[in-house]
Design goal:
Elements lengths: L1 E10 L6 E6 L5 E7 L1 E6 L10 E4 L13 E3 L10 E6 L11 E4 L5 H10 L20 H12 L7 H6 L12 H15 L4 E3 L11 E3 L1 E5 L21 E2 L5 H9 L4 E3 L2 H11 L4 E2 L1 E2 L9 E3 L5 E3 L3 H8 L6 E2 L3 E2 L1 H6 L1 H4 L8 H6 L4 E5 L3 H15 L7 E5 L1 E3 L16 H8 L1 H11 L5 E3 L3
Parallel strand pairs: 5-7, 13-21, 20-21, 22-23
Antiparallel strand pairs: 1-4, 1-11, 2-3, 5-8, 6-7, 9-10, 12-14, 15-19, 16-17, 16-18
Helix pairs in contact: 5-6, 5-11, 12-13
C-alpha cells in the first residue's frame, strides 16, 4: 500500500559528536561532516516510544565511532528522555535508508529477533484496541527504570518489562494514528526531523528546507474481515515445538510410505516442513475447543482432561481458573483421523478405519491440514494417517485469486447454470481442471 517513511535524528548523549563519512559505490568520499546525531527512518513513528536500541550493520564504517554509545529518543518530556544504546547486528542493510534501524522488539517481527539476539528489552506500547496503553505507573517513573536498564544498572525479566508503560502521559489512551501525528509534529517542532531541500523553494511562502518524508509503497497487513491495519505485538500464547515432531512426518514422504499427487506437492510439503516455525495454537476467540489448562493464584499450570482432574493435580481447596483461550482450529483438525473414531478408546471404528488409504483435499491446505495431520498422528499414535494424498485443483477468479464475498469476485455457479446450463458448467470445469492446479474462471 502507499505509505510514508519519516527520517528523524536521534541526538547522541551528552552532545557528543563524530565524523560522519559517506562514500559512493566505488569508495569515493562524497560527504564528510561532524554530526551529533544518528538518523533513522521509520514508517511507524509512534513505535519510537518503545525503542530499546538503534542497530547498525557491523561492517558499516559510517557508524563505527559511535558503536556502544547512547542516543536519545527524540520524543516525550525533555526532562525524562530515554537514552538507548547503538548496537551492531546483521539485520540492518547499510544500503537501505540511513543504514541505522530503530529496534522496537514488541511491535515488529524483525526487531523482535534483533532484540532477542542482543538482550534488548521489548516495551509494549499498545493495547488490543490499537490504542496507546493507558495503564501502569506515571511515565516519569517508568522512564527512570528503563534508563537504569539501558545503562546496565538493572537486570530485567520479561514480566517486568511487559508491565512497564513507556507511553508519555500526554499520549496515553490515544488511537495509534492520532499518536503518530502528534509524535511527528513534536519531533519536527523540536528540530529533530532530517531536513532536505524543498523542490518548491523560491515559490511564495515555500521554505528552503522541508522534513524528509518519503512517499513509498510499504508492506502493510490488514485484517481479512475488519480491513483494519494489523499491529504486531507481544502476547502470551501456547505453542507446539514443531521441531520435535516434524522429523517423522518428513521421513514418511521421503521413504515412500506416503505419496503426494501431483509430485509437485511433495516439493511444497518439504519446503514447509523443512522451514517450519513453532506453531501458535492458542486463539483469543469466543468459540472453539478451550485450552485444557488451569491456573492457580500463583500462576502454576495444570494441564488436564477435565476440571476435576486439574483439581486433583492442584490439591483440594486450591482455587483454579481455566485459560480462556481456545485452540487453533487446525490443531483440533490435525487430530481428525483418530479423534473422529473414538480415540483414545480402542473402538472398533478406530481399528477398522485408521489408518485410511487416500485423502482427497485441496492443494491450498497441504500445510495447514495435511502436514499437521501427519505430524500429530505420528507424534500421538506413531502411525501415518493415510498412504496417499490426492490434491485436487481449485476454482478461482480470472486472475487466479481466491473468490471472496468481501473482495467481490465471487461467481455464483447457479447464475452460470441459469444462463448456460449445468452441462456447460460441468464440461468447462472438467476440461480446464488439472491435478493440484488452479482453474481460472471468467464470465
Amino acid at each position: 500500500v502507499a505509505g510514508h517513511m519519516w527520517h528523524f535524528k536521534y541526538p547522541l548523549a551528552g552532545g557528543e559528536t563524530y565524523t560522519y563519512v559517506e562514500k559512493d559505490a566505488d569508495g569515493n568520499v562524497i560527504l564528510t561532516e561532524e554530526r551529533d546525531y544518528i538518523s533513522i527512518a521509520t514508517t511507524r513513528p509512534e513505535t519510537m516510544l518503545g525503542d530499546g536500541a538503534v542497530a547498525v550493520h557491523p561492517s558499516d564504517e559510517r557508524y563505527a565511532p559511535i558503536i556502544g554509545k547512547l542516543c536519545e529518543i527524540p520524543v516525550g518530556p525533555k526532562e525524562h528522555r530515554r537514552l538507548i544504546p547503538i548496537i551492531t547486528d546483521e539485520y540492518p542493510d547499510p544500503n537501505f535508508g540511513s543504514g541505522a534501524v530503530k529496534i522496537t522488539g514488541a511491535h515488529d517481527f524483525n526487531d523482535y529477533q534483533v532484540a532477542k539476539r542482543g538482550g534488548i528489552p521489548m516495551y509494549a506500547l499498545m493495547d488490543t484496541r490499537g490504542a496507546m496503553r493507558s495503564d501502569g505507573k506515571p511515565y516519569a517513573e517508568e522512564a527512570a527504570v528503563a534508563q537504569r536498564i539501558a545503562n546496565g544498572e538493572l537486570e530485567f525479566e520479561e514480566n517486568m518489562i511487559a508491565a512497564m508503560n513507556l507511553v508519555p502521559d500526554e499520549y496515553r489512551g490515544l488511537d495509534r494514528a492520532e499518536a503518530r501525528k502528534l509524535v511527528v509534529d513534536a519531533i519536527t517542532a523540536e528540530g529533530n526531523a532530517v531536513m532536505i531541500a524543498n523542490p518548491k523553494a523560491g515559490e511564495e511562502g515555500e521554505p528552503d528546507l522541508i522534513p524528509y518524508v518519503e512517499n513509498k509503497p510499504i508492506m502493510q497487513p490488514f485484517g481479512d474481515r475488519s480491513k483494519v491495519v494489523i499491529e504486531p505485538m507481544l502476547t502470551d500464547q501456547w505453542f507446539v515445538d514443531t521441531a520435535k515432531i516434524v522429523g517423522p512426518a518428513l521421513d514418511a514422504v521421503w521413504d515412500g510410505r506416503v505419496k503426494i499427487i501431483p509430485e509437485s506437492g511433495e516439493k511444497t510439503y518439504y519446503h514447509w516442513l523443512e522451514n517450519i516455525e513453532p506453531w501458535c495454537i492458542s486463539r483469543q476467540l469466543w468459540w472453539g475447543h478451550q485450552v485444557p489448562v488451569w491456573f492457580d493464584a500463583d500462576g502454576n499450570q495444570y494441564c488436564a482432561a477435565s476440571e476435576a482432574e486439574a483439581q486433583a493435580l492442584a490439591g483440594e481447596g486450591v482455587a483454579l481458573e481455566r485459560d480462556p483461550d481456545v485452540l487453533d482450529t487446525w490443531f483440533s483438525s490435525g487430530l481428525w483421523p483418530i479423534g473422529t473414531l473414538g480415540w483414545p478408546e480402542q473402538t472398533p471404528e478406530l481399528g477398522k478405519y485408521f489408518p485410511t488409504s487416500t485423502l482427497i483435499t485441496g492443494q491450498d491446505i497441504l500445510f495447514f491440514w495435511v502436514a499437521r495431520m501427519m505430524m500429530m498422528q505420528l507424534a500421538v499414535v506413531d502411525e501415518i494417517p493415510f498412504d496417499t494424498v490426492y490434491l485436487h485443483g481449485l476454482v478461482r477468479d480470472a486472475k487466479g485469486k481466491k473468490m471472496s464475498k468481501s473482495t467481490g469476485n465471487v461467481i455464483d455457479p447457479l447464475d452460470i447454470i441459469n444462463e448456460y446450463g449445468a452441462d456447460a458448467l460441468r464440461f468447462t470445469n472438467a476440461a480446464m481442471a488439472s491435478i493440484g492446479g488452479v482453474l481460472k474462471l471468467d464470465m
